[in-house]
Amino acid sequence: MSTSGLRLVWVYPDLLSTYGDQGNVLVVERRAQQRGLRVERVDVRSDQPIPTSGDIYLIGGGEDRPQRLAAERLLRDGGLTRAVQNGAIVFSVCAGYQIIGHEFINDLGQRQQGLGLLDVISERGMGERCVGDVLGDVDEQLQLPQLTGFENHQGITRVGPHARPFAHVRLGNGNGTGDGTEGAWAGTVFGTYMHGPVLARNPAVADLLLKLTLDVNALPPVDDRWYEALRAERVAAATAPA
Predict the structure, then answer these.
(1) Rounded to whole angstroms, what are the CA distances from 75 to 35, 115, 117?
(2) Residues 199-205: what's their mean pLDDT?
(3) Which of 125, 133, 152, 163 is spaced 20 to 30 Å from 172 by Cα?
């Protein structure tokens, strides 16, 4: 993090911002400010260059055509890749998750090159769409509480040997491969299918991004009553008898 403060970059809100995913950047911004950190938020539209000096880059979900356009422009731009090479953190959701992998199937039914920031490959599932609440146990290396979110995707994502599943599901489909995995992560790059927005439901994940940025093992405590109430509500709704 620079001496001027924490720099959050919200990538392509005009193309990738479905299901309230913009809430993710709001949560990180708020939780940083609660710790007394100066925060600069940069919203980068798809006709603008991606700055390479950000600390945390957040990418949301999107429909098929906007996803293809976003991938093409991010590849041409190259700024996000350079930022990761410089140590930046990326947190991506759904279409954004697929984009930062090696490839996905676009709206034309073609294999679309991704950024290759995460060792995953996505394809289009042939079965029912994955829709509904998800509960999962986060990779033990990350030392986070149970994950809660909402999925709505047709894609199937396979995690390669150079990445780890972000979580293993107790409820829901996650990556859609049938192996119980959800999302993926490697180093400072994270991807998930969970909306919600996922960082509002899981403030500990937002704090993880801040700890990685600050290179610390713990953060000063903040008032989590609102977040914990939301978590409890969504977990109860997901596990209630039909």
Answers:
(1) 35, 6, 11
(2) 96
(3) 163
